Amino acid sequence: MVSLKREIFSHPQFRWFFLGRTVSLFGSAMTPVALAFAVLQAPKGQQLLGYILAAEMIPNVLMVLIGGTIGDRYRRDVLLLLSNIGSGLSQAGVAAIVVLGANPYFMFPLAIINGVLGAFTSPAMRGIVPEIVDSKDDIKQANSLLNVSRNSAKIVGPTVAGILVATVGGGWGIAIDAVSFFVAAFCFSQVRIPSHPPITQATIMQDMREGWSYFRRHRWIWSITAAFALMNAIQMGVWQVLGPIIARHTFGSAGWGLTLGIKSLGLLVASMAMLKFQLRRPLRECMLAISVSGIPMIMLGQGYALPYLVVGAALAGAGSAISGVAWDTSLQQAVPKDKLSRVCAFDDFGSYIAIPLGEILAVPMSRIFGFKSVATVGGVIFILVALLPLIMRQVRQMTPECIQSLSSE
Fold first, then answer.
1. Distance of alpha carbon 183 from alpha carbon 304, whole angstroms
2. Which Gene Ontology cellular component terms are annotated (predicted)?
3. Less packed terminus of the chain by CB within 10 Å, N or C?
4. How confident is the model over 99-120, as pLDDT tens digits?
5. What's this model's pTM, rounded to 2 decimal places?
């Protein structure tokens, strides 16, 4: 067990980054519930929801490798500033469409813009952490604190969004998300990373190939990424698309918002615990913990009452927090800084590539086999896939010390 290093907040770079990330995540936590129930009210809303989510994810996946390469070539603090301004503008457009009751098909170009901006944001966000903390030992503390803030926001966000949907409409929740991006952009404008990327004569394609070469050489990275490719497709299809549909015909939007909020409570509690505890086998614990996320999918499919689903969601949230901290910390400690955004981009690309397929096929498959049957089978497959990388000895046995030593390769 290790003590919390409060000195990490003494560094203004991390303080501003932490504040901006927290504000942005608070707004973003409201959008899934607000957007889902706003779209479901439209004609053919069930299928439209999957298409809109896919419209954001597809360009994100297609562009993330370029985003990762840009993140290693240029200043990550500047990239975060510009991408958050752009996201604020696009989300303001989505909010206006929902509030004014305009044609929901107008959301598609804005969803595409959000996907492209996210492709530049994510690799820079993951890559900047080692640049704003003092040492590799501080990286886990930083990731744990960021997870605490993320999940604290998510406890409030879905619950507030559910209330807004039931009263004044979900468009106002999306509007709050737009404002949060602008506030985050101001915070990121105060972040000044101490180092500049080295000047390189290599082309973007050459840099991308270099990142791919590093990624494929390390089997522990790509094997876990491959597992997450299928797991994310299942989770987004079952939980993100089918979840609100099943909830709408059972316990309602407020109950679904509560479920997401309680899941975030599990995320928060586990994130706080990760501030204190050191994982002995980070990669093993990463996959064991994430496997728990299959449980609430099974419960949703089996028609468990809301109180039982809430408990399952809380356990899944705790597992997701442990897995997220373990995985991000392992990558940030093992991968050299000049390759980190590119490796994270390949991780994102592999992890997200099948998500649009899961989002698009969720409703058609449910109409053939039944909504609850698809949710149940999806949960079972999710658990099995999560446990598959544990076949590798390196994944089961790698220690934190071994992970840190990899950065010198």
1. 40
2. plasma membrane
3. N
4. 888 888 888 999 999 989 988 8
5. 0.74
